Structure prediction request, 147 residues.
Amino acid sequence: MEIERKYLIQVLPENITDFPCRMIEQGYLNTEPVVRIRRDNETYELTYKSKGLMTRQEYNLPLTEEAYRHMLSKIDGRLIQKRRYMIPLENELIIELDIFDGDLAPLILAEVEFPDTASALSFSPPEWFGEDVTFSEKYHNSYLSKV
Prediction:
């Protein structure tokens, strides 16, 4: 189960480069239901996500690089490329700050995953977070792959 809140970001934290960064590219084989392939640095996976906005089922299966490369030609829409910074918060929460590259730039989104729905609903974001877009489908990566 994935429980997360998502926010638009207008201004990056000054010390962004102090945090670990991963290079991610992902494409969608299907968007209803979501079936995604992803390269996260040198790790490859196939992901299924159910419908939902803040809460959804998520299943990840490992892929070989060869399988990933084979499926790249089968994606529907654009290949999303982004840099993901991992920024710790209190209560063992992590901000996943995605800075999109290519034609999705200058889009920046922050996601925070939670252990339960109550924690997600009571979350107070840091001051530098912008608009809460958790309940907007247009900020799902599967949607962004098609616009």
About this structure: The chain has a mean pLDDT of 95. The chain is about 10% helix and 40% strand. Helices lie at 65-72, 117-121, 141-144. The CA atoms of residues 22 and 79 lie 16 Å apart.
